[in-house]
Write a structure and sequence with these properties.
This protein has eight helices and nine strands. It has about 200 residues and is an alpha/beta fold. It has one domain: Rossmann fold. The protein has a five-stranded parallel β-sheet with strand order 2-7-1-8-9, with helices on both faces. The protein has a four-stranded mixed β-sheet with strand order 4-3-6-5.
Length: about 200
Amino acid sequence: MFVLSGPSGAGKNTLLNAVLERVPEVDYSVSATTRPSRPGEIHGRNYFFLSPERFRQGVEAGEFLEWTEFCGHYYGTPRRFIDERLAEGKSVIMDVDIQGAAQIKRQLPQVVSVFLLPPSMAVLHQRLLARATEGAEAIRRRLNKALLEVKALTDYDYVVVNEDLDLAVERMKAIISAERHRVGRMDCQRIIDQVTRGNV
């Protein structure tokens, strides 16, 4: 299970979409949110868009692996999807904020965490402006939050700087490949049996 965090505007969705196109054996965990959908976003693919009432019901029922509130909206990771994929032996990747990543790590210590950084705060500011989805006050809050989030970098297993998308994708692919080949994550006895079968 892979968790990707980083400031809003760092390019998490863009990176994940590119990785999922090139690494088909990894499933994306769709988060739930109460924020309005942005142009082009599809319910069930980008997010599960829920009403605040439905989200709170899910929290009370223990349906979320992690959840948080930011800028007046709730965000959370549905537990059922994760449990099903992990039980099937599949890899799952998701993007969550640093508080969500910490919540997940407490419940699933084996999770692999990756922090995505923009090349600079100036670039991050330009990316947020280019979205044209929020006003100046919301952007200011996101930048202030980003300054605090960067300090959590040392709590993560890996860091990727998203200056060039293709390079960032290759680094993410390398992380996924390395972690999937860790001895502790593999069926070592099956591999030993396969390699030694038929030897004199």
